[in-house]
Write a structure and sequence with these properties.
This protein is of the alpha/beta class. Helices cover 31% and strands 20% of the residues. It has a 7-stranded mixed beta sheet, with helices on both faces. A 6-stranded mixed barrel has the order 21-25-22-24-23-26. A hairpin with a 2-residue loop joins strand 28 and strand 29. It is globular. The termini are far apart.
């Protein structure tokens, strides 16, 4: 058995991982105690990585229009189609769409091929959807995409303001570091600014439950408050900034009374926050998608930065505006130029930068202007302007707004290539050519996390099938296009060192990104490279960038941005405001987390959260089927009543795709509205209506393989140990008996011993099929969902130690499976019912629950929910 240090492929925290490998298989995962990001900690997603590595659903060979082909034919096909489109329609008819799941080396060669050798800047990344407003905000203020904080600042600050970030679920290891620092510093204060009461509020001293989209007003008002109360750092402003007068002129109209009206906050809450910020020097504002994913996201970022510039609170430990990335290598993509408005190495399209990169690459067809950003790219494809589209390691049919438009784009584009490690995504279904890329544990390269720490992501096992690294695939296509000399890479380390040398090329300190000290690494040194922060120029810096008050603008001064805040679309024809976000145990469109049974049990089937009053007005109860719609489309999900959700708001998770639900893609409802500066789409706000979705019946279908389903009013599927469990509802016009017959036809096979029960007067139909002593499939259908077996019981039938007889199974009786309820502690698989029983029996706090059940003692992500259960169950006991 061997041990290897690598990094986690999930969020932007960039945790170090130690993998134990035996017989070409990852058998154990643990946190890397030596990595600066996590010091040995992992969340439950990271700790279950080994369970995501099975062969199921993997893309193993190139596939052209449904037929397997060999690599040489596939690569030549890509090169030929690129050359043909370029000759007939020009380079602007070609586009690449990349991903923060790619390694830096993959990103680099794709960017180099497009911008230096094909002559087009139509290469963008799904980081456009999560980080581009933060990038634009930093660039406008600092003159560069420089993140001025590290994770240590979150621990050493005395005031931490979380804005649009549910870090407890989205960046759990970092949240645990914050929680520990709070316990160590009794004077530390934490403010959460979010329209929803999230798990992150568990450690908050103050929760500002603002109206959706009103953040800009809040921070404009804060700047006005700081000015009026003489809390500006006049010396810092005078020496190191410009443009304060314009920003103050805009802020002047945002009095506390007006801000309170716009945000919906009580004046007392507003005053408390403003006073805290004004009085606390060591302040970090930590912001994420709730700020970025807005039609005015860049202005919101700058409104935050303005407050830090005005008080001189940046460039010193424990203070600064900190944008947290969502993906493991969103930062690396920004470094190499993965965005359409960047060139490479944090250079843009000004003439001197174009000349520098052109010279370094010896580029024959250098792009000289920005290309199409993500939404514009797919709109151009839908209009027939993009004829060749290469999508790498992402699922835009699910993640981009207005998914109907995206599907039109993929359908109309002459040739769509998808490079991915999985075969069954919504986007892959639209591709002409599928190329099998290596996934985590197989590929080798580097990533950069949210605090500018570059780490190695190492190969652990041999690739499955014929999967290849993304950099190799791009390089081989480049060679077939005649660019072999410039793409003569044999190892990812050669790409990395070229990237490092480019960062120092012509860089006299005027550019923030410089890792030229790594440009001469040999391959052994690259393989052994330890995590390290940039900048890392050949000549070591005496001070970190901006710590000395010098910025990367032409004047060397930081810029205040004067921008008038604005609310999202105020169309009142729709009654509800839709917000979106992540769940604790899921990631993106679940192509990885959806393979792990226990990760699906915290929130199993697709649901939509409503306030109780809104649900009651629409005659909806917990667990009913609700249809949420607008002029773009509709989604259907189970009603989840969320008491802390303000009236008039709806919340939907982002993760469900056509692989897991028939009507759960929330992008169906999101308009392709973008920030005018960054091009980032507004993914946190849509006007919608909600109504009950009538059903004829409900059912649960347990199978060993993913079933082929007929047309249904609703279905949502989760992986369980040994198979799949699907919850479904029949359309109101579909007779339950007919649906029962249709579903049985899709799962029956010869040699099974089937037992059934039917009561047509109750629309009650059941069948259990056994093969020897094992359950092969089970189908329960009833007009009343409450009469179906417990899903936890159903999920355990395929692996029950002592399967019951068929009669007992048909009756829904014990098969050696205990119904724990919804998982709260995923690490140790402790369910809600177990926790409630322990509380009733006397467990009075989180520590007591940990001692009795173990919950809350591993990654800690469940602690906020443990507190909620303690409170709720305690109230029941008193009552």
């Amino acid at each position: 058995m061997s041990s290897c240090q690598t990094t986690c492929p999930y969020c932007g925290v960039g945790c170090g991982v130690t993998a134990e490998v035996k017989d070409n298989k990852v058998i154990a995962i643990s946190g890397d105690a030596s990595h600066p990001a996590n010091a040995g900690k992992l969340c439950v997603k990271g700790s279950t990585l080994a369970q995501t590595l099975g062969p199921e659903g993997r893309l193993r060979t190139p596939v052209h229009k449904g037929a397997r082909i060999d690599w040489d034919e596939a690569l030549q096909l890509v090169a030929t189609r690129i050359a043909d489109v370029r000759e007939k329609y020009g380079s602007e008819a070609i586009a690449f769409y990349l991903s923060g799941q790619l390694l830096t080396e993959d990103y680099y060669v794709a960017n180099k091929l497009m911008k230096g050798f094909l002559g087009s800047a139509n290469v963008d990344t799904n980081s456009r959807l999560c980080m581009s407003s933060a990038v634009a905000g930093y660039q406008r203020a600092f003159g560069a995409d420089y993140v001025p904080c590290t994770y240590a600042d979150l621990e050493t600050c005395d005031l931490l303001v979380l804005v649009g970030s549910n870090a407890a679920w989205t960046h759990p290891v970092l949240y645990q570091r914050i929680a520990e620092s709070r316990r160590a510093n009794p004077h530390k204060r934490i403010v959460v600014i979010d329209p929803r009461r999230t798990a992150s509020c568990d450690i908050a001293d103050l929760h500002l439950q603002i109206a959706p989209g009103s953040d800009g007003f809040l921070f404009a008002g804060l700047l006005h408050y700081l000015d009026q109360n003489k809390l500006l750092d006049a010396a810092y402003v005078e020496a190191h900034t410009e443009g304060l007068e314009g920003a103050l002129a805009i802020a002047a109209s945002h009095t506390p009374a007006r801000v309170a009206t716009r945000t919906g906050l009580a004046p007392e809450q507003l005053a408390q926050f403003y006073q805290l910020f004004g009085a606390t020097e060591k302040t970090v504002t930590f912001y994420s998608q709730g700020i970025n994913q807005s039609s005015t996201g860049t202005d919101k970022c700058n409104a935050i930065i303005n407050c830090h510039l005005a008080t001189g609170r940046l460039g010193t430990p424990g203070m600064g505006p900190f944008s947290i990335t969502g993906q493991p290598n969103a930062m690396g993509g920004r470094e190499v130029g993965g965005l359409a408005n960047q060139l490479a190495a944090h250079m843009d399209f000004r003439a001197e930068h174009v000349e520098l990169v052109e010279q370094f690459w010896q580029a024959p067809a250098m792009a000289r202007a920005p290309g199409l950003k993500a939404v514009d790219m797919f709109q151009a494809a839908a209009e027939g302007k993009i004829r060749f589209l290469w999508i790498m390691a992402t699922n835009p049919a699910v993640s981009l707004p207005d998914s109907a438009m995206v599907r039109r784009a993929l359908s109309r584009c002459d040739f769509v290539v998808v490079s991915d490690c999985v075969s069954d995504t919504d986007t892959a279904a639209c591709a002409d050519l599928l190329l099998p890329a290596q996934g985590w544990s197989e590929k080798d390269g580097t990533v950069t996390n949210s605090e500018r720490c570059i780490s190695r992501q190492r190969k652990l096992v041999d690739p499955l099938g014929e999967a290849k690294p993304d950099w190799w695939i791009v390089t081989e296509v480049a060679r077939r296009l005649g660019f072999g000399r410039a793409f003569d890479y044999q190892h990812p380390g050669q790409i990395f060192t070229e990237h490092a040398r480019l960062s120092g090329h012509g860089n006299d300190g005027s550019r923030d990104f410089d890792i030229s000290a790594l440009g001469d690494l040999d391959m052994q040194a690259y393989d052994q490279m330890l995590p390290g922060y940039w900048p890392r120029p050949k000549t070591p810096l005496t001070d970190a960038p901006i710590a000395d008050g010098h910025f990367f603008t032409p004047s060397g001064r930081a810029r205040f941005i004067a921008a008038q805040p604005a609310m999202p679309d105020q169309d009142a024809s729709a009654q509800l405001k839709l917000n979106t976000g992540r769940l604790r145990d899921q990631w993106h469109s679940m192509t990885r987390t959806g393979r792990v049974a226990k990760l699906m049990r915290h929130r199993d089937f697709f649901s939509i959260s409503l306030n109780g009053r809104d649900a009651h007005e629409r005659q909806l109860c917990e667990g009913d089927l609700v249809e949420v719609c607008n002029e773009l489309g509709r989604i259907r999900g189970l009603v989840r009543l969320e008491g802390d959700l303000p009236p008039g708001q709806v919340f939907s998770p982002i993760h469900w795709s056509g692989q897991f639900s028939g009507s759960g893609c929330v992008s169906d409802l999101m308009a392709a509205t973008t920030d005018p500066v960054s091009g980032q789409p507004q993914s946190k706000f849509a006007r919608v209506s909600a109504k009950p979705a009538p059903t004829s019946c409900w059912g649960l279908l347990l199978t060993r393989e993913p079933p082929d389903l007929p047309a249904l009013g609703y279905w949502s599927r989760v992986v369980v140990a040994g198979g799949y469990l699907t919850l479904f509802a029949g359309e109101i016009f579909t007779p339950p008996r007919e649906l029962y017959k249709t579903l049985l036809q899709s799962v029956q096979r010869d040699g099974l011993r089937c037992s059934s029960y039917q009561d047509e007067t109750q629309d009650d139909f059941r069948e259990v099929a056994l093969d020897g002593g094992e359950v092969r499939h089970a189908l329960f259908l009833h007009r009343n969902r409450g009469r179906l077996p417990a899903t936890d019981w159903m999920a355990g039938l395929l692996t029950a130690d002592r399967p019951a007889g068929s009669v007992a199974l048909l009756a829904g009786l014990d098969a050696g499976v205990a119904d724990k309820g919804r998982l709260i502690c995923t690490c140790l698989e402790i369910g809600e019912r177990q926790i409630e029983q322990a509380i009733v029996a006397g467990a009075c706090d989180v520590d007591a629950l940990g001692q009795q059940l173990g919950c809350g003692t591993e990654c800690g992500s469940c602690v906020p929910e443990l507190r909620r259960l303690l409170l709720a169950t305690g109230k029941k006991k008193v009552a």
